[in-house]
Amino acid sequence: MQQPATSPAHYVRRGLLKIDDRAVLDVVDSLDLRGSVKISAVIGMPLRSLQQRRDVAAFAVSAPIAAAKGLLELLAAGSLEKVIEALGDHAESPTYEQLSAAVDSLLEHGSSDDDVVALLTFAIGEEFPAAPHCRRLLEERPEFALPELPDVAANSSILTLKSIDPEVREQRRARREEEKRRKRNTAPVHPARPVRAKASQKPTAAGPPAPPVASPPAVERRRVALTPSELERFSTEHPFVGTVVLAEVPFDAVDPAAPDQHAKSRPALVVAASDTSILVRAIYSNPSTTRVVFQPWRRLGFDHVSYIDDHRTPLSLASLDGLERKGRVTDDEWNVLF
Asked: Are the CB atoms for 93 and 129 separated by under 8 Å?
């Protein structure tokens, strides 16, 4: 079903159409979308198709909205971080004037119109508190004007669900009902079995209570497969597993800008632990081929889109009690990452 022209999803698709194809494809080409990478099929398969077919317009119009929003999030990540910094204490719910001034600051410092369009349409798609101001900026500034979506039916492909005519759907439903009635009418009728009268019995105490109805099984957290050396040091059953903490994570390489700095305090997800050490996956502000979006970033209070790395880093600590905790991931959020 096509979304209303003013829906958040509609703005997401129009934003992708507005942004230069080369900028979109550069981001898509930087992604590692191999089957071994932990990424949802509804997002990964359309993006892989875009890598191969190079048709941004078709993707914008017909891709599942989850895939379109995921791509737009990557395009908006850098601008989102900059505008949050520019807004400062007003970042959570800025006024129109504050947001407009922050956008002007982005443009003055080298951001392109496409960068701003990605930011504004992503904020609308995510329904941020500032979404009405973002709509107003898109409407009032000609350089940000969005193209309309083509009024054509998208081709049936892996990107879209096949559209079914309502009349055809009703015919199919009627055939199914007719088939059910025919089976009921042709089913063999068995004579009722005679019922023997039961001998009178003395009243007895009430029988045992009926067994309780089983509740649906809870989501089971996936177990992390550790290497033999990791198993010697860590346990996946430790209470800290699943907690996001602030920890000093060492750099993978020397930073030329700060050669004497070898580690940085950053959030990290604990995947295994002992009483004096933790095994973590670090969380970063910028995407890369080894990182995926850390879905609970907003729920855990991060002020920008964050990305979690596939690499596991062991950290030795004097005590776990001194670690600052940001919160815990849910079982569903955990299972997306493993």
From this structure: yes
